[in-house]
Amino acid sequence: MELIQATDKVWYSPFEKERDRPILGYIKGDNWSLAVDAGHSKAHTEQFYSALEAAGLPLPKLTVLTHSHWDHTFGMHATSGLCIANQLTAAYLRGYKERTEREGTGWFFGLDECIRNKYADCQPVIVTLPDIVFSGEMSLDPGSCPIRLLQTEAPHSDDSTLVYAENEKVLFLGDSCSGRFPTWVRDRVLCSRLAETVSRLDAKLCLDSHWTPQTKQEILDDLRSFKEGT
After folding, report:
1. What CATH number is given to the structural domain containing 133?
2. Which residues pair with 162 in a beta bridge?
3. Is residue 32 included in any domain, yes or no?
């Protein structure tokens, strides 16, 4: 797995279309390190950790979830340290866990072909819950690297969390700019509200989980000028 250094304190693994793997982020403080999203399986998480170790970087003490969708969270059981999510993400994960325990994994495999392809090798589907739950906004500082977690309205899901490394001016967007699964239609009002949130941050580099890096202005232009339904 490739690991790209974006700034002095921020790294990320690029998204992978074939296996629907999102960006996984890494922020290194002076005292401890933080990951952005947990990956979509144990294999995804472990490969990310191998890339970190190869680069001489310590494993994260904390993993922030940008939202509840499987490709960002179903690797949680393989993460090091603790996981943190907003209260809606925690509730959705609790629902996934209870449904899987009650019905098995058929409902999950029926969601998308990418899921069936990823789990074709019969690796177990394990849903775990976050260790820490917050609401609204939370500030963290792993050491000379202040980080803001912002729960926000967004067209992709109602449980989106943005992760902003203030001094590095790097914003992890998760899937917040995308449309809602499975139609991928975007709501204009929710795009506008997300744009308002992004506009208040002094970000220079914006990382969408399933796309290449963009500027803040490119993100705002996209959110403000799209045609309804795209």
Report:
1. 3.60.15.10
2. 150
3. yes
From first to last of the 230 residues of the chain, give the pLDDT tens digit: 899 999 999 999 999 887 778 999 999 999 999 999 999 889 999 999 999 999 999 999 999 999 999 999 999 999 999 999 999 999 999 999 999 999 988 888 888 787 787 776 667 889 999 999 999 999 999 999 999 999 999 999 999 999 999 999 999 999 999 999 888 899 999 999 999 999 999 999 999 999 999 999 999 999 998 644 44
- In Å, what is the CA distance from 114 to each residue of 118, 159, 177, 182, 199? 6, 22, 20, 12, 33
Distance CA 184, CA 188 (A): 13
Residue 28 burial class via C-beta count within 10 angstroms: exposed 0-12, middle 13-18, buried 19 and up: buried
Range of the domain at 60: 4-225
Which amino acid is residue 18, in one-letter code?
E
